[in-house]
Amino acid sequence: MKLDVRGEMCPYPAMKAKEALAKLKTGALTVLTDHAPALSTVPWEGAKAGYDAEIVEAGRGEWRITLTRHEGVLDRAAALEKISAQLRDLGHG
Amino acid sequence: MAHALPASFGRNSRFVSVGIPLIVALAIATYAFGRAGASIIVWWGVGLALGVILQRSRFCFAGAFRDLFLLRDGRLLRAAITGLLIATPGFTLLMARLVPDPSFGDLPSGAHILPVGLHLVVGGILFGIGMVVAGGCVSGTLFRIGEGYVGSLVALGGILAGLSLAAHSWNWWWQVHIGAMQALWFPRLIGYGWSIVLVIGVLALLYLAVLWWETRDAPDFPPMSSRPGAPAITFGEHLTAIQRRFLRQAWPYVVGGIALAILNIMSFTYDHALGVTGELSAWAERITGLFGMGAGTLIGTDQFDGCNLTLGDEGLLTATLALDLGLIVGSFGAAQASGEFRIRVPRHRSRYVQAIGGGVLMGYGAGIAIGCTIGAFFSAVPSLAVSGWVFAAALAVGAWIGTIVIRRLP
Question: Most distant CA pair in chain B: distance in Å?
Fold first, then answer.
């Protein structure tokens, strides 16, 4: 499933992602956003619901966040560590 | 090693296309403000720092109150509380120097100690609803304008309209209510020692309460950490690491909260605590004045320090203009440096309505409550003012109502 929230500010990216995850039965949710603060809220909401997050830069000031349901029980500490590592790597440019 | 300078300082980088023109423009503006007076240049610098801190740490006071209710996410609010925990002892030391005997009746000049009354409750609730509906408080709106958000520019229009409405009703508020209300100051009531114990104690308890609320359904959820990246060894690698940490990666919220607290202590040391709405009210008066719709008079606003409504008749080039302009420019520069600047236009028409409607509520609320999330809250609590707590409680109620409103909107 795809969720395009470009043009939206907080809290909409995280709010809509949370709603979409609640409706999502199978597969992954891809969130396209141009709101930088969403990078620290959307993956966080995903982790709360048991999803792994993959964050990539999709253009200047634009990012794609893919939330995939974690097989088994999500190790939340490891998931958050992975999110912050990705956010750190985004800063390498 | 061929790792002398970070790639982003290279010949074809944004540093050359945007950074150098920006630095030149900053130098010219700084020279112009410098000619207008030493204090104006200080506030220009404070504004730039404020914009950089808010943009880099994505520090959003609206989010601090809102996300606690909407997403059960208290990270921003805890960062704000951390900032208050640092600003409070700093402010107290300065105030103890300005007014050694608080029982005497004098209030320290430059601290934000406001009359306590219903206007704070009404203003705080309206402000809280407005900031959630519009998607940012007043400082948030200003720094998002610097980041390229068109919706925030529309919200600023709403804020100006709201401030104008507040200026028109100010004299009524003053005569019926505010004029008779006392500026309650904890040190006058219980002395400095007990005041600081009380305020720090309540802040610490609030911090724990927020943390408890956040983790109630997820007891093993640790806070997001940011481990340092690869180790830097050479001078060039260290430069790269500093530049990445400072300019490219978002700062953790708590770093933003601490930086804001330090900036606020510095501002108060120089002259007065931070606040951003006073200047906007001056512009609201100037603009409505062009159409003969200005408020004309504002009774009693000279009786306290804070983000008072003003008539804007003290000339254009003021310290508060330097501060607000600096905020926008600082945010613009930081957004450019981090690659986050982009003109963003809302795709839903309803967001424009929200920006204007929320802006009007915020402007009116800030007008009668004498400040926004910064002036009447973030600067008032460390001033050991009772008003800061009343306004904060009203803000929380307003933000909660705001989350109900936006849940029903598309």
Answer: 73
Indicate the pLDDT class of residue A93, thresholds 50, 70 and 90: very low
User: Which one-letter amino acid corresponds to residue B248?
Assistant: R
Cα B40 off chain centre by: 19
Chain B positions in Cβ-Cβ contact with residue A63 (cut-off 8 Å): none
**Whether B186 contacts B385, CB under 8 Å:** yes
User: In this structure, is residue B290 part of a structural domain?
Assistant: yes
- Best to test chain B binding among A4, A5, A8, A10 (most B CBs inside 10 Å): A10
Q: Are B381 and B88 a contacting pair, CB within 8 Å?
A: yes
b/e per residue, B302-312, with b = 16+ CB within 10 A?
eebbbbbbbbb
Helix (H) or strand (E) holding B329: helix B319-337
Which domains are seen in chain A, by residue range?
Answer: 2-89 (3.30.110.40)
Calculate how close chain B gets to A26, using CA atoms only, in Å.
23
Domain count, chain B: 1
Q: What phi and psi, each to the nearest 5 degrees, are found at residue B247?
A: -105, -35
ipTM here: 0.89
Structure confidence at residue B2 (pLDDT): 43
CA-closest candidate to residue B387, choices B199, B204, B192: B199
Write the pLDDT tens digit of every residue in A43-79: 988 988 889 899 998 888 899 999 998 887 878 788 8
Give the structural domain span for B260: 11-105+114-220+235-408
How far apart, in whole angstroms, are the C-alpha atoms of residue B373 and residue B388?
A: 9
pLDDT digits (tens, 9 = 90+) for B269-281: 999 999 999 889 9
Contact B220 A76 (CB under 8 A): yes
Strand-pairing partners, residue B385, are B185
The CA–CA distances, whole Å, from A70 to A47, A75, A76, B120 equal 9, 9, 10, 47
